[in-house]
């Protein structure tokens, strides 16, 4: 009886430890991010807004703007994350996501009167803004729990956002079929369900850095790659092969294994290792002295911020890598360079992505081929996210190459993609989609990692959202002031009949020649600015930037090891 009771106690102890552990928290973060890409499905169901509600193209453009604005305007979300507990942030995310998209679903299914366009814009703004609450908490908690592997962690988390759209689509096909109206309903409840399930999961932990911790992240990466390959094959095949409902259910089960089961098994394995080395029974019977790792200098971050911390010592800035206040970071020269780099790089990339359909139509490609372009760009967007996270971390650890150096390279690479669109030749758009998708995806984890490294983690929830705001700002300026006016001017010059002015469609290689030449120039300008930032921070990156997170010296502690395959 004593042995049985002891085993039950050990089992319950392990379960409790796992739920509170940082590896399980990382697993929850993967799932939260996998449900956060609902904005990428707007193009899929936007035709339903035209058909069911009767919106025209100008009204659809307004909805697109507020969708983009809501998904990127996250500064207030970050400020709230400074003081609010995790459960409140995820509860807000769930409530806003469900309400925003549920109201759209009610309008599309005519269960309520046709909303005014401003009401619909408000609904989609709320729904698009909701994932910023849960995403901020998932990213910040994960980076603080794994500060020495932040580049890798950010690459993995951002990659799940990149796969979010295809994942949600496959799960929707299995549950509802191809009905676009039900897709809006699924977008309403599925991310909200994930937020509620993991509402109490995110917490920052004191940690001991495990031996071969990087090997664990590679295991997560292999699972992610497997899921990406399967999703890619299904997405492409679905356009050419008619699948039965049973086939969709089978594909959803495969996604379920890759998304829910395999990462969970990896996380539980690592939690079991953590639990074993910290279990008093294990210590007593093996006579091993286990030393805890060093937590960040602050004893936890959540809930410690005060309004005064935003204004104290604005001009008396700490050194790079130390915790800055929000205004210290925002008003710093490094942040200015990074903001301008982001506005040029991510702004140009987002502009290209938003105009992909018009580019394909202008060059005479059929709808199926244009959809293939979008799939190709999404796949390489994912590849770029994981590549930049893992490779930049490797280059930083082994060769002390600053992360802004890779950012500079990606900006230069993206300019090649824009040139291929400005001066197209046979098959060049396929290559342009690969380059633009890869370089755009690569920049996201790099920018987030650089912010955390230069300005510390204490106010990271606010600072990385401030940095991300440069992306839609740059895209708005480039799209509204350069790309669209130039497209309209080219279309007007090709009009033969004045009665067709209302539906301007430009055809030919000239439609995006000038504007994408400008985008290439903007990307190169961003590369020069990033080069300046690299030179400014070179000495910082040549030092030991993770020293304060590291365990005590080896001679002062005995660390357990384990067999690895």
Molecular structure report:
This protein is mainly α. Helices cover 72% and strands 0% of the residues. The protein is built from 22 helices and no strands. Helix 15 (333-354) packs parallel to helix 21 (470-494). It starts with a helix and ends in a 23-residue tail after the last helix.
Give the biggest beta sheet.
Answer: none
Mean pLDDT: 86
Question: What separation lies between the terminal Cα atoms?
Answer: 37 Å
Shape: globular
SSE succession: HHHHHHHHHHHHHHHHHHHHHH
**Helix run count:** 22
**Which bin fits the share of residues in helices?**
over 70%
Task: Name the descriptors.
565 residues; 72% helix; 0% strand
Entry summary:
By secondary structure, the protein is mainly alpha-helical. The protein has helices at about 1-20, 20-35, 40-55, 55-70, 75-85, 85-110, 115-130, 130-145, 150-175, 180-195, 215-235, 245-275, 280-285, 325-330, 335-355, 355-360, 365-400, 405-420, 430-455, 460-470, 470-495, 515-540.
Protein topology:
Blueprint: H1 2-20, H2 22-34, H3 42-53, H4 57-72, H5 75-83, H6 86-108, H7 117-129, H8 131-145, H9 150-176, H10 180-197, H11 213-237, H12 245-277, H13 280-286, H14 326-330, H15 333-354, H16 356-362, H17 367-399, H18 403-422, H19 428-455, H20 460-468, H21 470-494, H22 513-542
Helix pairs in contact: 2-8, 2-9, 2-12, 3-4, 4-7, 5-20, 6-7, 6-8, 6-10, 8-9, 9-10, 9-11, 9-12, 9-17, 9-19, 11-12, 11-17, 15-19, 15-21, 15-22, 16-17, 17-19, 18-19, 18-22, 19-20, 21-22
């Amino acid at each position: 009886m004593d042995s049985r009771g002891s085993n039950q106690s050990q089992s319950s102890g392990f379960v409790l430890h796992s739920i509170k552990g940082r590896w399980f928290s990382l697993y929850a973060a993967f799932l939260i991010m996998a449900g956060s890409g609902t904005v990428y499905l707007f193009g899929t169901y936007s035709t339903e807004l035209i058909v069911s509600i009767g919106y025209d193209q100008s009204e659809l453009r307004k909805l697109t703007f507020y969708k983009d604005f809501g998904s990127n305007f996250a500064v207030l979300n970050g400020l709230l994350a400074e003081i609010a507990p995790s459960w409140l942030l995820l509860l807000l995310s769930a409530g806003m996501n469900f309400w925003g998209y549920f109201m759209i679903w009610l309008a599309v299914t005519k269960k309520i009167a046709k909303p005014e366009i401003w009401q619909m814009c408000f609904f989609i703004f709320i729904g698009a803004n909701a994932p910023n609450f849960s995403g901020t908490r998932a990213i910040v908690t994960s980076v603080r729990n794994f500060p020495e592997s932040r580049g890798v962690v950010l690459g993995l988390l951002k990659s799940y956002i990149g796969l979010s759209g295809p994942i949600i689509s496959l799960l929707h096909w299995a549950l509802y079929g191809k009905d676009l109206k039900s897709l809006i309903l699924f977008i309403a409840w599925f991310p909200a369900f994930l937020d509620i399930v993991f509402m109490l999961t995110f917490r920052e932990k004191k940690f001991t850095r495990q031996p071969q911790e990087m090997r664990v992240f590679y295991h997560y990466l292999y699972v992610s790659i497997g899921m990406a390959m399967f999703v890619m094959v299904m997405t492409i095949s679905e356009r050419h092969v008619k699948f039965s409902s049973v086939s969709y259910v089978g594909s959803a089960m495969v996604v379920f294994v890759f998304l829910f089961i395999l990462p969970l098994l990896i996380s539980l394995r690592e939690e079991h290792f953590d639990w074993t080395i910290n279990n008093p029974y294990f210590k007593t019977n093996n006579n091993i002295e286990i030393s805890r790792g060093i937590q960040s200098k602050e004893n936890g971050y959540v809930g410690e911020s005060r309004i005064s911390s935003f204004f104290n010592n604005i001009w008396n800035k700490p050194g790079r890598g130390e915790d800055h206040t929000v205004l210290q970071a925002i008003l710093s020269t490094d942040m200015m360079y990074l903001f301008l780099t982001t506005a040029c790089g991510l702004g140009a990339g987002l502009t290209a992505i938003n105009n992909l359909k018009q580019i394909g139509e202008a060059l005479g490609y059929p709808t199926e081929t244009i959809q293939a372009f979008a799939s190709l760009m999404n796949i390489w967007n994912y590849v770029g996210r994981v590549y930049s996270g893992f490779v930049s971390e490797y280059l930083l650890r082994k060769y002390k190459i600053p992360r802004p150096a890779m950012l500079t390279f990606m900006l230069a690479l993206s300019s090649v993609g824009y040139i291929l669109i400005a001066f197209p030749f046979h098959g060049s758009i396929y290559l342009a989609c690969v380059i633009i998708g890869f370089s755009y995806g690569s920049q996201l984890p790099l920018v987030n990692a650089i912010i955390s490294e230069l300005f510390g983690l204490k106010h990271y929830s606010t600072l990385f959202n401030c940095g991300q705001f440069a992306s839609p700002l740059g895209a708005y300026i480039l799209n509204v002031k350069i790309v669209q006016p130039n497209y309209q001017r080219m279309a007007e010059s090709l009009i033969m009949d004045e009665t067709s002015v209302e539906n301007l469609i430009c055809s030919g290689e000239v439609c995006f020649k000038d504007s994408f030449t400008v985008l290439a120039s903007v990307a190169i300008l961003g590369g020069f600015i990033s080069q300046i930032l690299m030179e400014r921070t070179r000495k910082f990156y040549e030092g030991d930037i993770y020293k304060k997170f590291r365990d005590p010296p080896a001679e002062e502690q005995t660390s357990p090891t384990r067999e690895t395959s």
